[in-house]
Design goal:
Chain lengths: 641, 161
């Protein structure tokens, strides 16, 4: 059964409908939170602190080496090495939904791109997909191929950046020496199993090479991000805010020389991905062998969501009517994975199960606790499937800045849920969805087995190889990083297959990269389903009279940095940090650095710039709103200025 | 003398966009641009990429940067100076690199990252102005608008031997 919590069931033909006899199907009861650090819990905290000097409030504000503004509040028990309480705070407001209202729909491509300095091109493309659905157009095959190539290249930029420049330093010699010197000692004598691929004798050599600014793996990653970016701009013109993404394809042309130049760069990732996989396999296994409890770092249930990406150029028609068909023909299938099992691979089911809650976010509820007063705009999607009032097509962005209170509101992120369950997403959700889709046999270099994904890597300087990513038995921080390493190979193979298809189209003379269109003046809706390097990304658009009436962007970090939902369940960062044992080596509480907490948070590859300034008359809601608010309850002051 | 002149900043951020805006204006001044060895370029595309590009190009004798930077001075204050190349501690440099690769564009970030990763000439000159209005939108505040001729003059004089 697809849904366990939403009152939606399917008939024999697979059509979704609301369960009969449910009076107010999407309403819900808000569970009251009882944090230790709240006005009510203050006395409890003081008692705890008085009795136990080892219980500490530890705030990471801001969490460094992540993109954008994230703060994380914890209460930790340093004696029992447990995290007692967690609160994840997006500390800036993303105002694109408000900025886009009333604008020409085509502006969405260029304005939403500014949501991020890393994955701007994905926002542009997802906006173009949403507009294509609304306008009733789709690109010619070469336009789709170009888009697939561009976004592959974007991921090839993104993954090395995360693995070696953002998360990587947590595993470098200086970090390990400082936080777990016994591991550094051990690393010097443990031989690296992947030496033949990566060239390092010992694990300590790998850790040294991961040292920020000076380590060879760090500087090599910087170089590889350049290779990917060069390939992107050969077609896309510039990055991270391309001007070439348009509804119905791309506005650039591609010739043989472009393909050859891109090919030269993709091939470099064949060797590089093998090296990165060997590095992260060695690191992960070293930590697991040194202390099996490292498997628990960042642990959370196997609940993942993946909208799928890389369209089949001959199947994608941009319509919602056929979204389940063209969605299933993507290189990475749309999927919801619940407790490790595939809940659905239907885009319509994925879409209808999404809700955004704001009980603990700095926004006004627009739904009357899910009831929507019976007046919410879209009771169904364009295919007649039921939609909840909290669905992105119904969502209204109504900022309500205020003081931080762990019991009430404490984040600018909403709480997205699928079937009212917290989901995470990332490049590994693509691997996972693909691995589980055993019937997915149309990929040239990628083979799902139901429990793993085989990657048939052509030769570069290294000989050809068969790499295999296995669905992990236990899901946690180290596996996220390992999955991201495999995602470089996975992405390079998809880029390569698209390149070969592009050359084939060129031989056939099918070189057109876009179609003509007109902005319709009547009422339209559209949705773009894609993913950033960090996972799930959707844009939902409502257009009328030739302008945007409502526009909603749901990003991967909104899913994962989310605060608690109305049912009292934590967001993925909060849940994963709560489950994290504190394995750091500290003698005194003052020595505690929080490396295990930071490894957990960074393993999700947080990307918060999609929370940013908003223009609201003459006021700017800025960084000062809540960044200093960790551990502070509502002071009754209006922090807007 | 090979001199690279470049503005730094985001577009559409009112006074914060002085860098890219003035780059476009200065590039259209044929008199000044006719000087041998003078190149002008919008350098807002990311410090890591700039560092890599500078290392691949024939070396410049001087880099002249201009931008709006908030330092708590009176709005419209214009300062021109030769950068002293003082770098913060490695941890802070690493944070600046992390900012740079995730899309943060700022003058300080550019100076620190490029100095750490390489590519800057010995002689780096900076012209900066204290912004008054950093709201999202086009055009400058009146205060900064009035100071544009002074910024322009200081940029060109910074290119002289």
């Amino acid at each position: 059964m697809c849904f366990k919590n939403l009152p939606v069931e399917f008939d024999e033909q697979g059509n979704a409908h609301l369960k009969e006899g449910v009076a107010d199907p999407f309403s819900y009861k808000v569970e009251e939170l009882a944090p230790i650090e709240s006005p009510e819990g203050e006395e409890k905290l003081h008692r705890l602190l008085e009795r136990n000097g080892h219980i500490r409030r530890v705030d990471f504000d801001p969490v460094t080496r992540v993109a954008g503004a994230l703060a994380f509040h914890t209460v930790v028990d340093l004696e029992n090495r447990q995290v007692l309480e967690t609160d994840s705070m997006a500390t800036l407001f993303r105002g694109y939904e408000v900025i886009l209202k009333g604008r020409d729909p085509r502006d969405a491509i260029f304005i939403s791109s500014r949501a991020c300095g890393v994955c701007g091109g994905v926002h542009s493309t997802t906006a173009a997909l949403a507009l294509e659905m609304a306008f009733g157009i789709s690109p010619p095959p070469m336009g789709t191929i170009a888009r697939n190539l561009l976004l592959s290249l974007e991921y090839l930029y993104d993954h090395p950046l995360h693995l070696f420049l953002l998360a990587g330093p947590d595993y470098s010699e200086p970090a390990v020496r400082e936080t777990n010197p016994e591991l550094w000692e051990r690393a010097q004598s443990v031989r690296a199993a992947g030496k033949a691929t990566h060239g390092f004798d010992t694990i300590a050599e790998i850790m040294t090479a991961m040292t920020p600014l000076t380590g060879s793996l760090y500087t090599e990653a910087l170089h590889m991000t350049r290779v990917a970016r060069e390939a992107y701009v050969l077609i896309g013109g510039k990055y991270p805010h391309p001007q070439t993404i348009v509804p119905g394809g791309i506005s650039a042309t591609i010739d043989t020389s472009d393909f050859n130049e891109v090919h030269l760069r993709i091939v470099k990732f064949f060797d590089y991905s093998q090296k990165v996989i060997a590095i992260w396999n060695d690191l992960v296994e070293f930590f697991y062998e040194a202390n099996p409890q490292y498997r628990e770092i960042g642990r959370r249930p196997k609940n993942l969501i993946e909208p799928g990406q890389w369209d089949d150029p001959h199947a994608y028609d941009g319509t919602f009517a056929n979204v389940d068909d063209w969605g299933r023909k993507r290189w990475a299938p749309p999927a919801v994975i619940r407790d490790g099992e595939l809940a659905t691979t239907q885009m319509t089911a994925l879409n209808m199960g999404v809700e955004e809650f704001v009980e603990h976010s700095f926004y006004e509820d627009w739904t009357d606790g899910g009831a929507g007063n019976g007046a919410y705009q879209f009771k169904t999607d364009p295919n007649g499937n039921p939609l909840p009032p909290n669905h992105p097509w119904n969502k209204q962005t109504i900022p309500k800045p205020g003081g931080t209170n762990w019991k009430d509101k404490y984040s600018w992120s909403t709480s997205p849920r699928w079937d009212r369950v917290a989901m995470e997403t990332g490049p590994y959700s693509r691997l996972w969805a693909n691995a589980l889709a055993e019937d997915y046999s149309h990929l040239k270099f990628i083979e799902p087995t139901g429990h793993s994904l085989k990657l048939h890597m052509p030769h570069g300087n290294l000989p050809e190889a068969e790499l295999e990513w296995h669905i992990p038995e236990q899901w946690g921080a180290f596996e996220r990083n390992r999955g991201r390493a495999y995602s470089i190979a996975y992405t390079a193979l998809i880029a390569y297959e698209n390149l070969l298809m592009g050359l084939d189209l060129q031989r056939k003379g099918e070189t057109r990269t876009s179609v003509d269109y007109k902005v319709p003046k009547d009422f339209r809706v559209g949705a773009g389903f894609w993913g950033a390097g960090r996972g799930y990304l959707t844009h939902h658009a409502v257009i009328d009279n030739g302008v945007i009436e409502n526009y909603q962007i749901l990003t991967p970090s909104t899913w994962m940095a989310s605060p608690k939902d109305p049912f009292g369940n934590p967001g993925p960062y909060e849940e994963a940090v709560h489950a994290t044992p504190l394995l750091e080596n500290y003698e005194k509480p003052e020595d505690f650095k929080g490396i295990d907490v930071l490894r957990t948070i960074r393993s999700f590859d947080p990307c918060m710039p999609c929370t940013t300034h908003i223009y609201a008359d003459s006021r700017v809601i800025s960084r000062d709103v809540v960044t200093c608010a960790c551990g502070v309850d509502d002071d009754g002051h209006d922090h807007e200025h | 003398m090979r001199v690279l002149v470049g503005g730094v900043g985001y577009r559409f951020l009112r006074d914060g966009s002085l860098g890219p805006h003035l780059t476009d204006k200065l590039a259209d001044e044929p008199g000044e641009m006719s000087s041998n060895g003078l190149e002008i370029e919008d350098l807002s595309y990311g410090p890591v990429a700039l560092s890599m590009n500078l290392q691949e190009r024939p070396p410049y004798d001087r880099l002249v940067l201009f931008a709006a930077v908030e330092r708590g001075r009176a709005p419209g204050t214009v300062e021109a100076y030769r950068w002293n190349r003082q770098l913060p501690a490695p941890d802070e440099i690493q944070e600046r690199v992390a900012e740079a690769i995730t899309g943060v564009i700022s003058l300080d970030n550019l100076l620190i990252v490029c100095a750490a990763l390489g590519g800057l000439p010995d002689d780096v000159r900076v012209v900066e102005i204290e912004p008054e209005d950093l709201n999202w939108g086009e055009g400058f505040s009146q205060t900064v608008e009035q100071k544009l001729p002074e910024v322009r003059e200081k940029v060109w004089s910074s290119t002289k031997p």
